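Human: I would love a firmer grasp of how sequence relates to backbone shape in proteins. Could you go through the record with me and say what the backbone is doing? Here is the record:
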Amino acid sequence: MIDWLRRAAVTPDADPVIEIDGRVVPVAIRRHPRARQMTLRIKPDGSAIAITIPRWGRQEEALAFARSRCDWLARQLASATVPQDLHDGDSVLFRGESLRIEWSSRSPRTPRLAGDRLQCGGPADHLTTRVQRWLEREALALLADDLAHYCALAGLAPPELRLARAQRRWGSCSSKGTVRINWRLVQAPDHVRRSVVAHEVAHLVHFDHSPQFHQCLSELFGEGLDEAELWLKQHGRTLYARFG
């Protein structure tokens, strides 16, 4: 529960903090020109609370809103994932399946997939970084194929693709056509990753969430869209468990 609320005393513009079940958590308040109401979220690792408010909103109202959701915040903090370094014998998710880390000082530094194992070498204290880079390279290759596939169905040339590292957003499409997809989706089942790519390709056709957009997305992805979206809602947080 929220026991008390205080503001940093040294700098007036510092982010306020909230104590939840004895834990002090920073609160970042951001004004958004298109926001029509306040939205509240907590970072997957529980390191901060983020509140988005309309441009005319007041900080006091945002903090009151957070206080009114104290029970929800406490539950979210309790389930927050705190990334931990990888060691020999640990596991990581790859395309919906668990890979066992098999580290040896005699193995090559670049991770290598061997069935349900990921063989790794190099310094043990940098293992997490090397595994993440391997996952990002695999993500880029898979996502490029996904993007080319759905763009072909939509009759479009594949746009520029970039990996995203956002804490909550799975994909985005800029007005210039650049598509960004969260690299962590390489850990999810293939149909979940592809649903996000199809979503952004549909935005290349309809830059909104109109009925025409949803019709386009449905035609691009086919059956199973609801199941993929439900998987992300139920399990998306687990994709941050190892790498934050």
Observations:
- The chain has two domains: 2-78, 91-240.
- The domain at 91-240 is CATH 3.30.2010.10 (Zincin-like).
